Amino acid sequence: MLTIPGLRTGRFCDGIARRDFLKIGGLVMGGLSLPQILRAEAQSGIRKSPKSVIMIYMAGAPPHQDLFDLKMDAPIEYRGPYKPISTNVPGIQISEHMPHCARIMDKLVPIRTMTGSVTGDHDSHICYTGRSAKGVVAPPGGWPSIGSVMTKLCAAKGGEVPPFIGLAPDARHPPYGSPGHPGFLGPSYSAFRPNGAGMSDLVLNGVTSDRLADRQKLLASFDRFQRDVDNSGLMSALDVFDQRAFDVLTSSKLLNALDVSKEDPKVRERYGKGDPKNFGDGAPRNNEHFLVARRLIEAGARCVTMNFGRWDFHAKNHSELLTHLPLFDQGFSALVEDLHQRGLDKDVAVVAWGEFGRTPQINKDAGRDHWPRVGCGVVAGGGFKTGQVIGATDRLGGEPVERPVHFGEVFATLYHWLGIDLNNVTLPDLSGRPQYLVDGWQPMKELI
Amino acid sequence: MKRSPIILTCLLAFSATVLAQPASLKIEATGAPELTLHGKDARQQLLVTATLADGAVRDFTHQAAYSAAPAGIVNVDANGIVTPLADGAVTITAEADGVKSTLAVHVEGAAHEAPINFANQIVPIFTKAGCNAGGCHGKASGQNGFKLSLLGFEPAEDYEHIVKEARGRRVFPASPENSLLLLKGINSTPHGGGKRLDPKSDDYALLVRWISQGLPYGQESDPKVTKIEVLPKQRTMTLKSEQQLVALAHYSDGTVHDVTRSALYEPNEKSMAEADEEGRVKLFDQPGDVAIMVRYQGKVTTFRATAPLGATVASLPPSHNYIDDLVFAKLKAMGMPPSEPCDDATFIRRVSLDIAGRLPNLEETQRFLADTDPVKRDKLIDDLLASPEYADYFANKWSALLRNKRTKPADAPMNFGFYDWIRDGLRANKPYNVFVRELLSASGDVAENPPVAWYRQVKEPQQELEDTAQLFLGMRMQCAQCHHHPFEKWSQNDYYSFGAFFSQVGRKPTTTKENEAIFHRRGIATAINKKTKQPVRPAALITGPMEIPADEDPRIALADWMSERANPFFARTLVNRYWKHFLNRGIVEPEDDMRETNPPSNPELLDALAQHFIEGGYDLKTLIRDITRSQTYQLSAVPNHYNGPDRQNFSRYYAKRLTAEVLFDSINEVTRTPSGFPGMPAGTRAISLPDNSFNAGSYFLTVFGRPESSSACECERTQEASLAQALHLLNAKDIQDKLASDAGAAAKLAADPRSDEEKLRQLYLIAYSRAPEARELELAKAHLDKPRKGTDGMPLDAAKSKRMGYEDILWAILNTKEFLFNH
Predict the structure, then answer these.
(1) Taking chain A, what is the end-to-end CA distance rounded to the nearest angstrom?
(2) How far apart are the CA of B87 and the nearest CA of chain A, in angstroms?
(3) How far is CA A130 from CA A178, A424, A432, B300, in A?
(4) Are the Cβ atoms of A29 and B284 closer than 8 angstroms?
(5) pLDDT-based confidence at B565, cuts 50/70/90?
(6) What three-state secondary structure class fits B607?
(7) CB pairs under 8 A between A and B
(8) Is A264 an interface residue toward B (CB < 8 Å)?
C-alpha cells in the first residue's frame, strides 16, 4: 500500500493527488491496488499522462573519456588514440566514433560527471535504482528499480501491453542480464521479459485463439462465485488482471511491438542490426532493442529497459571499444531522432549509462580498469533542455571539477518529470518503514 | 435477517437526523471543572458533547452557539476556540436547540507575553507545517542545505541550524519579517516546498515575536512535555459523523496546555476516517473501529472511535468456546449480524487448507460429508493437526520468517538442518516459548545445533534485535535506530539497550570452510547508543536496565523475560500472528505492528487468546484447535444483508487467496500431474520445500510471491494480484502441459468409462470439496458434447474431442475464484 506522511497531499504520476483518486466514485480508501487505481482513474476520466522512460544500461561501464569527455590535454598514456569531433552544438566535442550522436547533439545532454558507485563493483543496480548495490544500506528485499516503481505509481497506458518491459536476456554475469529488480515491492512489480521467464505466457501455448475464446466463455459461465465474499479488493483485482491477460493474448499489440519486421525497412536500417548474441558474459549488442523499445512505448509501455554489450575493457580498451561504440552510436542516435520525428520527444525520456567510469591511465594491457570516482551518461527526450553538457572533469578525466551528478539526481529528475511528488510519496519496505524514492536528491535544474 | 438494506439505511439516516435533539449538553476544556488561561498566547479548544434522548452521545462542538459573559474577557469563535482578551473571570455558555451548558474560565496575564521557549513553542510549528518531515528538511541530508531534525525530535540541533548555521542568514532579528526562514515559509522568496505558513496565522506571529525577542532558546528549567492526552479518549460515533478532538500537553511543572492545533493526527485505517489539521475527525461509511494517532513533540496517544453498523442482531449461532463469546459480544455491540455457519463442504476445504496447506482428497471429503457424527469437525481438526502436512505447512511459514535463506550452494546442509529442526519442533508440538528460547540462545556449530543458522543469516546485533522485536514482540523498532520512533514511545536508547542483549554474540571459524560457530563472549553486555555515544546496558523495552553478570549469556535473560507470564508482547504477538493465519486479518493489523497507536479491534479477544496460550503452556496446537473449533472460524464467507462492509470484526470468514505453494500443489492435485524439484524426491510438494532456493527455478512460485526469506515480515509473501500471474494461470505452457498430459486428469477422465456426470461430480469434489449444482453439470456436459474441429478444420473424433473438453473444464476450474480462494 502507498502511504503518504503528513497532511499535505502527495502526488502520483500524472500529478493527481491521492485524495482525488480515493474520492472517485465512492471508492473505498486504503489498501488500493494498482487495478483499483486504474479503475478509479478510468471512472474519473482523468487523462492519462503519456510520459514514459527508456533506460539503457551499458553493461560493464564504458570508458567515459573515450565517449563524451576526451582529454586531449592529457599525456598519451591517459588520452588514448581517439580524436574528438565537433558536434552540431558549437563548443561541444565528443568521440570521433560517435558521428551520429555528434550530428544530433542539440537533442542530447551528455553528463560528464556521473558519480555514485561506492565500491566500483559491476552492477546494473545503480543504473536502474540510483543506489549503489554495495556499500550503502539497503532495506530488506532491496531497492526497487524505476520500472517497478513506475508500475506501482503510474497508471498503465494501455491494457494490452505491460507497463514495465525489460529487453535484457539473461547474461552469464547475472547483473549484466538484469532488467532492474522489483526489490521490496515484490514480484508483482517485476519486468516483463520478452527474453526471459514468463515470455512464453504472452503467446498462446498449444491452444488456438478460437479455443481460448471458447475457454474464456466457459470460464465466465463457470466462475459464478460470489465476489462479495472478498471486500479487500483482491478478487476484483484478479478479475481486472484476468481481463487484461485476455486482452494481451487476444490482441497482437504486444507481439507486434516486439516484431521489428513490421517496421518500415528504412527505419530498421537507421537503427542497424547489431548482434542479438550475448557479448561474452555480458548483454547483447542488439541494435534492434532500441527500435523495439520505441515500438513498445508507442504500444503503451511505461518503462522499457535494455542492456547493451559488455564494456568492461580491462585489456585492449581502444580496439575493443570499436566493437561497441559505433553500434551504440547508431542505435542510440536513431532512437533519439526517431522519437523527435514522431513527436514523442517531450513524452519519452531516454537515459543511457554505465555503472561507473574507467581509469584515466591506460594499464599495461592497454585497457582501462574500474573508476567509480567519475563516469558518464547521456540523457535525451523528455522535453529536457538538450544541447548542453553537464559537468566537467579535471585534465586527466579522473575527478569531477564541476557539477558532480549523482545517479540519484537523474532518478529524482525522472520521477519529478513523471509527476511524482518526491517529498511526499513513500513506499513501505518490508519492515513497514516508509522509503522515499530517492535519498534526498533533487531534480536537476539544468534539465528541467 | 432478510430485512432490506434500504430500510436499514433509512433507519440509520432517521436516527442520525431526527433523533439528534440534545437532551443535555456538556462543555469541557481540559476535563477540569474550570479553565484557567495564562498569558496572551493561550488558546483553548472547547469540546461540546450532547447526550441525546436515547442516551447516545454526539459531538456538538461545531453545532453549538457560544457566548461569554461578561464581555471583553475572552473571545470564542464558532469552532469553539477561546482566545483571552483581558484578565478576569468569565462564564462561557454553549447552547444548542435550547439546551445549555456553562464553563467557568479565568484569564490571567492576558497582556503578558511570556518569553518564548524554542522547543515547546517554535519546533512544533515546523512539525505541523511539515518542514521537518522525512521528505523535506527532516531527512538525514536536509534539503537544499537546510536541515532540521526529523519531526523536531532534536530541538537543540534545530536551534543550531536555524540560528547559527550559515552565518545566521536565516533569521534577522532587526527586521524579523525579512528573515529568510519566514520569507521561505510564506513562499515570498521562492521555496521548493511552496507555502507552508500563512502570514496571518498565530504561528507566523509567534515566529516573528520569537525572532524579535532575540531568538531565545529558553531556560534549562523551563517545563518540558511529559505526556499528551486527547479528549475524548474514545467515542461511539455514527457513520459519516464528525468529532472534534482536544489535544492537551502535560508539562513537567504540572501545567496543562491546549495543543490541538499543533498536534498531528493520523488514522490507523485510512479507509475508515480522516482527521484534519484542527483535530476534527470525520468517519466514512465503513463500520468498525478506528484509532486516530495524536502526535506532539515525540509523545503519542490515540483517540478510538467505534462506528457500529447499528443493525439488530436478532440471533447468534451457538458459541463453541471463549473466542465466540468475545467475538459475538463485539458483534452485538457493533450491531453487526454474523453470517451463517458454513456448510461441511466449505469447512473441510477451508480447514484442510489452513492447517495442512492442501486440498482435502476425494476420500477424505466423501467420508467427511457422509459422516453423521456431531463432533466430526473437531475430529477432523485433530486429524489434520496430527498429520505431517501440518508440520510441513507451518515449517514453511516459519522457515521464511526465520530467514532460512540459501545464499550460496554450500548453505544447503544448514538450510536443511534448520528446516528440519523447525519442522520436528512443530511436529512434536514443542512449546512456543521453548522454541524461541532455543532459537535465541543458540550456540555452537550449526551441524550440532541447527537454530544457530538464524545467527548465520542475521549477522549484526541491530538486525538481531530488529528481527526479534518484529517477530516475537510485534514491534517494529527499525525507526528508533536513527531517531525517536515517530509512532511509538521507543527512543534510540530503547533501541540500543534492546540490542545490547546481542552484544555478546561471539563468532568463530570452525574446521569447515565458510562455517561459523556462535558462542557467548564473556563480558558485561553493553551497546553504544549511536546518538549519545554512551554505553547502554541491556533493557527489554519496558524492564529498565538489567544487571547481567559477565559470564551469563544475556540472550538467556532475554528469553526468560519473554517467557514471563506477564510479558505484554510475547504471547499476544504469536496469537495475533496465528489468528491472522486462519482469519486472514490480525486482531491487530498488520500483525507485527502492535504499537499502542495501532490498537486491537477486539482487545478482550486478544487478551483471552494470549491468556489461554500462556496458561496452556504455549501450546501451538491447542491454540490452533481453539481457533478452528470456534464458530467464528466456521462462519460462512458469504455476507448477509448487513455485514458486507465488515473488515475487522470477524462477522464472517474473510476469503483469502491460496498462497503460491498451496496453489501450485493444488493444481498438481487436480490435474493429477505431480511436480518435481531439483535435488528433492519425486512428488515433493511445494509446501514441503525447505528453503527459498527453489523459487529461482520455478517461475510459478516466484510470480505468485513465495518469499525469498529475506526479512522477518510476513508481508514479504506478497498477496497482490498481477498481470504476470493472470497470464501464467490462464496461458502458461507448464499449466497447458499439465492439462494435456497423457498421464493427467483430462486424459484419464476422457478414458474413464463412467458417465460424464459421475466424473464431473468427482472432479468438483476434488477441486471444490462439493458436489456440482445442476446448472454447472449442464454447462459442463454441454461443453463436453460440443462438436470440435482439429487444427486442420476437420471434425475431431469423439475420444479426442472429449479429452479436449475435459482439458477445457479443468482449465476453467483452475481459473475460477472459488478454486483460487480459501473461503
Answers:
(1) 30
(2) 36
(3) 15, 18, 21, 35
(4) yes
(5) very high
(6) helix
(7) 226
(8) no
- Determine the distance in angstroms separating the CA of B773 from the nearest CA of chain A, rounded to an integer: 11
Task: Please indicate whether, in this complex, the C-beta atoms of A432 and B791 are within 8 angstroms of each other.
Answer: no
What was the pLDDT predicted at B718? 82
Q: Indicate whether A168 pLDDT > 60.
A: yes
Q: Are B244 and B61 a contacting pair, CB within 8 Å?
A: yes
Min Cα distance A245 → chain B (Å) is 5
Dihedral-angle region of residue A6 (phi above 0 means left; psi in -120 to 50 means alpha; beta otherwise): left
- pLDDT tens digits for range A303-347: 999 999 999 999 999 999 999 999 999 999 999 999 999 999 999
Would you call B654 and A230 a contact, using CB atoms and an 8 Å cutoff?
yes
3-class DSSP state for residue A198? Answer: coil
Read off the pTM.
0.88
pLDDT tier for residue A29 given thresholds of 50, 70 and 90: very low
Let me know: does A116 contact A407? Beta carbons within 8 Å. Answer: yes
| Contact indicator for B68, B91 with CB cutoff of 8 Å | yes
Mutate to test the interface with A, among B143, B488, B722, B764 (most CBs of A within 10 A): B722
A27 near A36, Cβ under 8 Å? Answer: yes
Q: Which residues of A touch B264 (CB under 8 A)?
A: 6-7
SS3 category, B101: strand
* pLDDT at site A12: 58
ipTM above threshold 0.90? no
Q: How far is residue B409's CA from residue B322's CA, in Å, rounded to a whole number?
A: 48
A108 touches A336 (CB < 8 A): yes
Count Cβ atoms below 10 Å from residue B13 Cβ, excluding itself: 12
- CA dihedral sign, ordered A353, A354, A357, A361: negative
The C-alpha of B373 sits at a distance from chain A's nearest C-alpha, in angstroms, of 29
Q: Which residues contact B372 (CB under 8 A, 6 or more apart)?
A: none
The interface residues of chain A toward chain B in range 208-247, judged by CB-CB distance below 8 A, are 208, 211-212, 214-215, 218-219, 221-223, 225-232, 234-235, 237-242, 244-246
Going from the C-alpha of A104 to that of each of A109, A343, A381, B516, the distances in angstroms are 10, 16, 12, 58
Residue with the three cell numbers 479436449: B804
Chain B interface includes A197 (CB < 8 A): yes
| Structure-block grid coordinates of residue B728 | 501464467
Q: B121-152: per-residue pLDDT in tens?
A: 999 999 999 899 888 898 888 888 899 998 89
Mean pLDDT for all residues in chain B: 92
What are the E-state strand segments in B369-515? 505-509
Instruction: Pull the grid cell for residue B593.
Output: 505492528
Rg (CA), chain A: 22
DSSP B642-663: S-TT-SSS-SS---EEPPHHHH
pLDDT beyond 50 at A22: no
Q: Do A222 and B812 touch (CB under 8 A)?
A: yes
Task: Select from B477, B648, B699, B730 the residue whose CB has the most chain A CBs within 10 Å, as the one to mutate to test that interface.
Answer: B730
pLDDT of residue A431: 78
Cβ contact (<8 Å) for B134 and A436? yes
State the residue for C-alpha cell 490571567.
B108
Q: Rounded to 10 degrees, what is the CA torsion of B189, B192, B194, B198?
A: -50
B108: closest CA of chain A, how far (Å): 34
Using the beta-carbon criterion (under 8 Å), do B645 and A231 form an inter-chain contact? Answer: yes
Number of alpha carbons in the 13 Å side-chain half-sphere of residue B482: 12
Model confidence over B643-653: pLDDT tens digits? Answer: 988 989 999 99
List of chain B residues whose C-beta atoms are within 8 Å of the C-beta of residue A198: 699, 703, 724, 727-728
Give dist(CA B568, CA A192) in Å, integer.
46
For residue B418, the SS3 value is: helix
Nearest to B726 among A29, A205, A245 (CB): A245
Subunit contact A434:B271, Cβ cutoff 8 A: no
